[in-house]
Design goal:
With 1005 residues, the protein is of the alpha+beta class. It contains 40 helices and 36 strands. Strand 5, helix 4 and strand 6 form a beta-alpha-beta unit.
């Protein structure tokens, strides 16, 4: 940093030497940028003047010249990126000339607007004389813009080492590579509580996607009611489509304005006509130029019989969108973010009664708990590993014949990324081989090669295909692709196309199709379905809708994130159809399983499939058939398992990325990357860090056990030595009690004592209660929790003889009080507790808790199995094996078995760094338990040795819990550790592990 500080100090002295001249009105912004700001950021390590990074498409600093439309500037002066990601801005710098005061609301608003629209948390406003760091996380508001200043410095402070460190270690290139911007943003104030869920605070903190989604939701609601009020005949589906098309047109027009393709007159028009008629007239005038779906004549809103909505409602929407102070800059909002916004927007539809309209969530969205769009870094990775790998090294002519699809495309986020990847590749190819370009393929812009609009059209029509069962989704996908197509269009381009009477937007109805990817037209064979049923099913043959692609053998790549919905959601007709049509059908399958099979079937030989889906199929019973199908028909390329990391915000779905090639390969090798964290700069880099190269032994139709080869050999050995735990215990593994059900409620020690003290026949209804966290290795920690069982028919009168006891229930345990009150009127006096207790214990579920049993928690970071013969009742965070078997207990608590579990169970975090395993029954049942041959004396000795050691460790644990002195506790701890090691060694011997294998196991525990 010392050398950097010397360079900056020289700039400070230069500025001081001619300060009066630099502060004069005649000294322009372009001059201060060249003389000082460029050099300042060059000193921070950035290649500002592109001395090293010559390729205009691979430059970490993008510098914009002044481009103004009316009074607004289109781009920030500097945008900083980190290779190889030249799309996600790390931070912006807005420059001004020194003569002006930087503490200007308009300057701040402008800077915040750049950052907020691209989800960049902070930005810099500078004239070199001053350096202002601004918080861009807040929705731009010119009234509060100046409040967003985080910190500012005067140029005379740049020489102060303490001050300069703040700048250097935040905005210096090496610091940014190491995540300085993200780390700094994490220290800024964040929204909390319910406000955080909505992404907004009173102070205005709100992400651009959430804010714009709320805006669109509001417009949908207003338009639906306004349309319905004047057009009572419209049903829900018609209203949904009419509203959607209106909003799509408004968004597209705003996009054209902010891109400078159309003049800023189109929405903020002032006319003697109604705003609605002016809007329709504008759309009609734009249709010949742009064509496409957006401005195509619509059978409802463009029909002469459609009555215009209330003038006030529509004009206010137009005025709000056209407001020069609008926080939304469609020139800056990435198309991918718009896609994510629309993905959630599509989760709702308009429904109607005779006179009213209402916005509701779609049933499938409601069941799924919301819409969860795929994070962009995952979309980008999947497309890179599929389309990116397939086109690498190919010529544009070769790529022209390729087809890429998403058959559950939603708002089109994957297809936007595919299109972007193709545009990026073609641009780079022609930059390196300009002589290979055909006439009209490319043109020069600002000294760099760019694809012509016609070439961009050609790539879109030739290569991009999508399917969705929701027509609104296909419309939004087309809109998103149109926006991407128009991203680099200028007003001159539009003018030239207009002169030639050519259309800016291609017809994508043959590329993006509304249909059911999972149901073919054969579902109609020999069956009579009415129009409504067929309309609901939307059966479709890929050979019919994409004939040229299928004639070529199928798609080169299919990508996507199919819906995670139970198959029952499509009704009985689909169940019957799937049973006959899909190899992967099982009684409990999710739809994504069928999407996997269908995607493989429509791939050409050698094609690649990239998907993010639930990881359950890799180990669950319902995934067995799809595992067999994949092993038989594909070569696995990559598996990136996120375990139970929250990839989808607020969703309990734990995903895996799979890359598969339609190719049958023996003894295949593939990459397996178990992800430990979601905090990284690049998913590619993170995958490379954690990648293991596995072979086909790790995957089979019966089981996917994704482990290193050395681990696979050990696990195979264990499986051969034993029988599954499920078989060993006759499938008797029980889940704990869900309190509140079956009249079971948790109480504390004081309440228990009160109840027993009053002795109202209640003591026999109270049992010790054990939560998962209380279960440790060979012991249970007393958490002083108890269960009280309330007999059916009991009311407060059974406890009300002592008023303070009833008050205790009411205040401290309202659930118990409410339960008792339910039976107040129909109470049936019961005093014979013996009879009730007999009824309770006659239920097999509860009888198991009274028996001697092995118990363990549902989540554990180490072996935590113990034995209970005191009739303790277990919570829902525990599991119970009703078996008096100390031999089994010793095996379960061994390092060897935990090693096995760590390779088959889902992982929360990194086990080696405090992560935990989810000990779900489906995985526990696979544990190989070594059985004993009672006729073999050596085998019997091994059994008895383990049992004896377990008895000793249980005794030592019990003594340790009662020990009163530190000396005694220390002695017992040493004894327990020694016994534990002896059990581990005994289990190693039992399974016949070699010294090398033991070292591997020990090294991984």
């Amino acid at each position: 940093m010392e050398q950097v500080l010397r360079l900056v100090s020289q700039l400070v002295r230069d500025f001081q030497g001619q300060e009066r001249a630099y502060l004069s009105p005649t000294y322009q912004e372009s001059q201060v940028r060249q003389d000082f700001i460029d050099k300042f950021f060059t000193a921070l390590g950035w290649d500002v003047t592109h001395e090293k990074q010559k390729n205009p498409y691979e430059q970490e600093v993008k510098i914009e010249n002044r481009v103004r439309t009316e009074s607004s500037q289109r781009f920030a002066d500097y945008a900083f990126f980190i290779a190889p990601n030249y799309r996600d801005v790390k931070y912006f710098v807005e420059a001004k000339k020194p003569a002006k005061d930087l503490s200007n609301p308009e300057y701040y608003y402008q800077t915040i607007r750049y950052g907020w629209n691209q989800s960049t948390p902070i930005a810099v406003l500078t004239d070199f004389e001053e350096f202002h760091i601004i918080d861009c996380r807040y929705k731009p508001n010119i009234k509060t813009a100046l409040e967003r200043k985080i910190e500012s410095f005067h140029f005379t402070q740049y020489e102060d080492e303490v001050v300069f460190k703040k700048i250097f270690y935040l905005f210096g290139r090496e610091a940014v590579i190491n995540g300085s911007i993200e780390k700094y943003a994490a220290t800024l104030a964040k929204p909390r509580g319910k406000k955080a869920e909505k992404g907004v605070l009173k102070s205005g903190y709100q992400q651009v996607d959430q804010a714009f989604l709320e805006l669109l939701d509001g417009y949908r609601d207003q338009l639906a009611h306004a349309f319905k009020n004047k057009n009572q005949q419209l049903n829900g589906e018609e209203l949904t489509e009419a509203v959607q098309r209106t909003i799509d047109r408004l968004v597209f027009i705003r996009f054209l304005e902010d891109k400078g393709i159309e003049e800023k007159t189109v929405i903020g028009f002032k006319s003697k006509q109604s705003s609605w008629n002016s809007f329709l007239g504008l759309c009609k005038s734009l249709e010949p130029k742009y064509n496409g779906l957006v401005f195509k004549e619509h059978p409802i809103i463009d029909n002469s019989t459609f009555n215009a909505p209330d003038e006030k409602v529509f004009s206010e929407i137009c005025s709000e969108l056209a407001d020069p102070s609008s926080p939304y800059d469609f020139n800056s909002i990435p198309i991918s973010i718009l896609g994510n916004i629309y993905e959630r927007f599509l989760g709702k539809v308009v429904t109607t009664t005779d006179k009213r309209a209402k916005i509701v969530e779609k049933p499938e969205v409601r069941k799924a708990g919301g819409v969860y769009y795929t994070p962009e870094y995952i979309v980008r990775y999947i497309v890179g590993e599929t389309v990116g790998k397939l086109i690498d090294g190919k010529t544009p002519d070769e790529i022209r014949k390729m087809a890429f699809a998403d058959i559950a495309c939603g708002s089109g986020s994957f297809l936007i990324e595919v299109y972007d990847k193709l545009l990026e590749y073609h641009t780079k190819y022609y930059t390196e081989h300009p002589e290979k370009a055909k006439k009209g393929d490319i043109e020069k812009r600002a000294g760099a090669i760019a694809l012509s609009h016609k070439k961009r059209q050609e790539i879109l029509v030739n290569n991009i295909y999508g399917v969705d069962i929701d027509f609104q989704a296909t419309e939004v996908t087309q809109l998103s692709l149109y926006l991407k197509l128009m991203e680099d269009v200028t007003m001159n381009d539009a003018y030239q196309f207009s002169l030639l009477k050519e259309r800016m937007l291609p017809d994508l109805r043959r590329n993006i199709v509304c249909g059911n990817s999972l149901i073919g037209r054969d579902i109609l064979d020999g069956k009579l379905f009415d129009d409504e049923t067929e309309h609901t099913l939307k059966p479709m043959n890929f050979e019919d809708v994409f004939p040229e692609v299928m004639k070529r053998g199928g798609f080169d790549a299919v990508v996507g994130n199919p819906p995670y919905v139970r198959q029952e959601s499509l009704g009985d007709r689909f169940i019957y159809y799937a049973k006959d049509s899909y190899h992967s059908y099982t009684n409990q399958a999710d739809l994504y399983v069928f999407f996997i099979e269908k995607s493989i079937n429509i791939l050409k030989s050698g094609g690649i499939y990239g998907i993010i889906c639930s990881n359950k199929f890799m180990r669950s019973n319902y995934g067995k058939e799809i595992r067999k199908f994949l092993v038989s028909n594909t070569a696995l390329q990559e598996v990136i398992d996120f375990g139970e990391l929250p990839v989808f915000q607020n969703a309990a779905t734990f995903p895996v990325i799979m890359i598969l090639k339609k190719q049958i390969v023996q003894n295949q090798k593939f990459v397996f990357a178990p992800m430990k964290s979601l905090i990284f700069n690049s998913l590619e880099e993170e995958v490379n860090k954690s990648a293991l190269i596995l072979d086909s032994r790790s995957v089979s139709g019966d089981n996917w056990r994704l482990s290193s080869n050395e681990a696979s050999e050990i696990l195979d050995k264990l499986v051969l030595q034993g029988i599954p735990l499920g078989k060993y215990v006759e499938n008797k593994i029980y889940f704990g009690i869900k309190t509140g059900l079956d009249q079971a409620f948790v109480i504390d020690q004081a309440t228990k004592n009160n109840l027993i003290k009053q002795d109202y026949n209640s003591s026999d209804l109270i049992r010790s209660y054990v939560i998962g966290d209380a279960v440790r290795k060979y012991t249970i920690i007393d958490k002083q929790k108890y269960l009280i069982f309330i007999p059916q028919g009991w009311t407060r009168s059974h406890f009300g003889l002592v008023q303070n006891l009833w008050n205790l229930f009411t205040k401290k345990y309202p659930a118990i009080a409410n339960h008792l009150l339910q039976y107040e009127k129909k109470a049936k006096e019961r005093t014979d507790q013996g009879d009730y207790w007999w009824e309770l214990r006659s239920c097999d579920y509860y009888k198991e808790f009274d028996k001697p049993k092995i118990v363990y928690p549902d989540i554990a970071k180490e072996s935590r199995f113990t034995f209970d013969d005191n009739g303790m009742y277990m919570a829902a965070t525990t599991f119970t094996i009703p078996k008096d078997d100390l031999f089994l207990l010793g095996i379960l608590n061994s390092k060897l078995i935990f090693y096995y579990l760590s390779h088959v169970c889902p992982v929360l975090g990194d086990v080696k760094r405090g992560g935990r395993l989810r000990l779900k029954t489906v995985y526990m049942k696979t544990l190989p338990i070594r059985t004993i041959n009672s006729d073999d004396p050596a085998d019997k000795d091994r059994h008895d040795n383990i049992v004896g050691l377990v008895e000793q460790i249980l005794s030592a644990k019990a003594k340790h819990a009662k020990a009163n002195t530190e000396a005694e506790k220390n002695r017992l701890e040493i004894q327990i550790e020694a016994l534990d090691r002896q059990i581990d060694n005994a289990v190693y011997e039992l399974y016949g592990l070699t010294e090398e294998e033991i070292k591997i196991v020990e090294g991984n525990n």
